[in-house]
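Before the break, one more example. Copy the sequence into your notebook; we will annotate it together after we see the structure.
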Amino acid sequence: MYTLIILYYHLTNCVATNWTACPAWSPPMTFVFVILLGLESFGFFIFTAVMTTIQFYCIYTDTTGIEFFKGKRRSSRSSMSFLCALKTVFGSRVGLQWLSPFSRPMNYITQNDEHITFDV
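Here is what the structure looks like once it is written out:
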C-alpha cells in the first residue's frame, strides 16, 4: 500500500510539472519503472498473504510447516478454538502487544495448561 502511494505521488508530481521535476529518466522509462515496481509490490503482497494464511492455519491445526506441506494430520489434536490456539502461541493477553517484537511476555500458558511466569 505504501509503495502505491509513493508511486501515485511520484507520477502526479512528474506529470504536473511536465517532467521537469523528474530529469533523471525519460517519461517512457519512468512508466516502465513504475509498472515494474507495482508488479513487484503486488507479488510481495501475494507472497506475504499466502505465508500469513499458512502460518495461521498451522497455528489453528497445531501442525508444523513441514507437516502441513507433507499433508500429515495429527489425530491426537484436541478441539481448540482459534482464539485459544492463538493464546497458546502468543500469550494469554489478547492485544496489540502480539504484533510488537519488543513486548515482553508476562504469563505463558502451555498446551497442558501449565502456567509459566517470566520475571521482567
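The CA atoms of residues 3 and 37 lie 8 Å apart. Residues 1-77 form one domain. Try to locate both features in your own notes.
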